[in-house]
């Protein structure tokens, strides 16, 4: 029995679709379907109920998946013994919080091309909480997330960067300094339920604003900075995000007490990247 067929069976069970699995595995749908039929013939059981669309795992199919998972983990552990611990080899699935992907991905890909030539990468973006859950369930191998509340049990972290927060406003709104911003102008707040948003909300609770002061919640940094550039109000964001959209009319004001967003690489403590997390994190950092 080939473990490739078992790996693909597990992949189908995770994504819930032959078509989606075939696309992600770089296989044709017919090739994947034939492989599953061959596996069924070899095992002498029916793994999928094909009377429904998309086909669903049968009870015995689910049991086979459950038994295959520890087998595949042992195979991965065996392969790890045969590789240098600081080398990235294989196909890795990496998640990014959206606010970090746009800044980190270009440099990461450039460094990986030279320092990890035998590794390939797949990427997705999302919220820190969702990405952490995907690492825990092995849907992705690692994730770059904001460490606002700490990581759940089962995950380890490598710090990638610490980014200071700054207030940003159009120069026309700065006649009365920071106090004038808080009392007179609209505040553009990035999603309060995200890692960044929680840090922003915590900081803003320290500053008194009139009950009549407006707050606009947006889920897009570009939209927030465009509003700030247009002189419609002010915001509080990590400095690198402000600098990406900053023009000569935007002024930055530091927080009275320094506030930082910590970006970390989250990996499963017993996952395939457990011994290589530092190597991957180094590819995400600006330094060589």
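Sequence proposed for the structure above (288 residues):
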């Amino acid at each position: 029995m080939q473990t490739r067929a078992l790996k693909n069976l597990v992949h189908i069970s995770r994504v819930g679709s032959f078509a989606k699995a075939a696309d992600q595995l770089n296989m044709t749908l017919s090739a994947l379907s034939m492989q599953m039929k061959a596996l069924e013939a070899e095992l002498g059981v029916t793994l999928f109920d094909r009377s429904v669309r998309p086909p669903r795992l049968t009870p015995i199919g689910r049991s086979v998946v459950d038994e295959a998972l520890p087998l595949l983990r042992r195979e991965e552990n065996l392969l790890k013994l045969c590789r240098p611990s600081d080398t990235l080899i294989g196909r890795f699935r990496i998640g990014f919080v959206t606010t970090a992907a746009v800044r980190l991905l270009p440099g990461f890909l450039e460094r990986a091309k030279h320092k990890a030539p035998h590794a390939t990468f797949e990427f997705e973006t999302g919220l820190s909480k969702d990405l952490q859950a995907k690492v825990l369930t092995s849907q992705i191998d690692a994730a770059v997330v904001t460490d606002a509340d700490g990581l759940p049990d089962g995950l380890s972290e490598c710090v990638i960067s610490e980014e200071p927060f700054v207030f940003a406003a159009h120069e026309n709104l700065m006649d009365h300094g920071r106090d004038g911003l808080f009392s007179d102008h609209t505040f553009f707040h990035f999603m309060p339920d995200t890692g960044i948003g929680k840090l922003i909300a915590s900081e803003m609770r320290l500053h008194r604003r009139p009950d009549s002061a407006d707050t606009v919640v947006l889920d897009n940094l570009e939209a927030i900075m465009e509003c700030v550039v247009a002189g419609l109000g002010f915001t509080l964001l990590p400095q690198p995000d402000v600098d990406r959209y900053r023009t000569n009319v935007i002024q930055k004001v530091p927080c009275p007490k320094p506030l930082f967003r910590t970006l970390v690489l989250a990996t499963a403590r017993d996952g395939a990247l457990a011994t290589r997390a530092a190597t991957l994190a180094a590819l995400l950092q600006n330094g060589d």
